[in-house]
Amino acid sequence: MSHREGRTIHDADSHIIESRGWLESYASDYVKDNLETGVFDLNMKALDPIMEAADKRLAGEDPELTEALKSDLFAHPGKRNMWSAYGAVEKKERSDAVEIMGVSSQLIFPSVGAGRFARSKDIEVVYGGCDALNRGMADFCADDKRLHAVGYLSLRDPQRAQTSLQLALELGINAIWIASDAVDGRAPSHIAYDPLWAMMEEAGVPVTLHIGSGQNMPSAYMNTGVERVLKGNIGNIETTKPKDLPVIHHTIERWITCMIYDGVLERFPKLKVGIIELGANWVPASLMNLDMGVSLLGKFDQNLKKLTLKPSEYFQRQIRVGPLHTENTGWILKNVGKDILMFNTDYPHPEGGKDPFGAFEKSLDAVSATPDELDRFYSKNYEDYIGF
What we know:
Blueprint: E1 10-15, H1 29-34, H2 48-58, H3 63-75, H4 91-101, E2 105-109, H5 123-141, E3 147-152, H6 158-171, E4 175-177, H7 194-203, E5 207-210, H8 250-261, H9 264-267, E6 273-276, H10 283-297, H11 311-318, E7 319-321, H12 329-336, H13 356-366, H14 371-386
Parallel strand pairs: 1-2, 2-3, 3-4, 4-5, 5-6, 6-7
């Protein structure tokens, strides 16, 4: 029997594909005039035919393509057409897409919006950009309770971050995406952020890391003295390179180590954490290394003696991870337990593959995952993470 039959399924990773002018439509005039291009230029000429085709379809001028996308969505839920994908840019279509795909809810991230303000030298643009993005994400998801909006929060100014977070919560944002690297010389676990964790814990809104949260392979490691030609994919709005993939979790592990060792998850036991589109192959070793760091070196750090649980137990209690469909999810499940992993599609990004349902099902069947393990993977871990 297919895993999809008779089972509630939640999708822990999907995206909108921002169209030209989308972020500007939610921004103040000052922010609008000072947004940056970002790492992916929406105005590049190469995108013109893609955008025009998407606009034509959304205007009802290509009904055959629309019907083809809809009819193919159930058989191939990962059908990747970026801006032209069904439900990628239009919220009513997205509600229909969720129905066709057979998922009960979807966590929806932006794609390129945060890159247009998060690194700005102008703090007004940084927080004005956060607020604009969060308005847009809340608006996209406002009419359908199955669509769970992910907002973005900069940690550049911890005091201003509280104001921005309050607005995001009032807008109905369901999860908060942050950077994982140390910001302005502060560890991720700095006490200046405690008010933010307290606000999220009280609201039942998880803090979330996603690909793009931290630094990939540093540029110095790309300098080999030999010219290397890397061909770009205009349809790939992410910038992950081959050297990034094996180490992309390093910044995430540093963040988790700080949050556990420095007592943040001890002080905020109901704060949930999502690790999305950052893989999960590394999780079994990380659980062991977190415990080993305390057992072998904990006597040298008196603060570690304040922890009431083993580090791996904080992880299992509060952190949920979305594995990549290309990983051996069955093997990961058997090595981390049933309480951590979450199903996801990455729709409509190409990295999610054409058939994430089939990929995960094959891997889980290979290890004879139990009905309880499957229920945790497809629904219950997500429900725990998002605060159902």
